[in-house]
Amino acid sequence: MTAILKIENLKKNFGTIEALKGVSLSIKRGEIFGLLGPNGAGKSTLINILAGLSRRDSGVVDVDGFDVTKDYIQTRQLLGVVHQEIISDGFFDIESILKYQSGYYGIADNQERITEILHKLGLTEYKNRKVSQLSGGMKRRLLIAKALVHNPQVLVLDEPTAGVDVELRQSLWKYVRELNSKGTTILLTTHYIEEAEELCDRIGIINHGEMVTIDETRLLVEKLGSKKLDIRFKKQHESLPDHFESLKPELFENGKRWRFTIDKEGLSIREILQKLEEAGFIYCDLWTEEGDLEDVFINFTNK
To answer: Rounded to whole angstroms, how far apart are CA atoms 42 and 61?
Structure first.
């Protein structure tokens, strides 16, 4: 599958601060790509450069073969960007805003597309309502509607569900999946790691302005996600031998149940049980829980 977005050795400094230190990644046409990282890692800086709101210091940033600076007209047509910040459009109503937004892309009559987007985002009954009368969640939907009026090939979502309720979050992700099924490529940043794990085909983790890993979501979890092992003992144990400290033991049920974190490089379950038996710890039950993307994120960012 060909890449629709290509970033190579992208660098950006703000004074003495290195926001991006040679970031490289490519996003395949038609995939949902998740960009994860702690606050200040460089996610929004990368997106602002992609959207033309900030100038890179060096590096390549191409959208479908067009440079974001030299070919800005073409790249603006290809991209729809939803930023974190909720920007007010004063006292215009929703439908008028979407008509004006269409005009920015040279689309004179876009009513059919506007009507479709209003319906998909649950904004139809609010279309004549002014922005100042909207809730935070409705304003968030409006931002997404504005990004979609020109039917972009790539939709960039920077923390799109920050501060919205669960119902709205679920409806937005349903629409994102629908857009993707019709061919729209999605670049997503989110602090809700469970969303990234459920939605994204691949994940890139950025930390301190550097890409620390990129891989398929499933493979990342398999390779680096830790496993939890819960063991219930026949009697209480307030402490364990020192050589179990690397397993980060957690105490439950006043010492009758212990939870261990098993990394790919560490002891196997069989080895753990054998060492417990050798130390005189008799267990009566055990169960495991597979790791998830949060474990991977913590491994790479220590956050």
So the answer is: 15
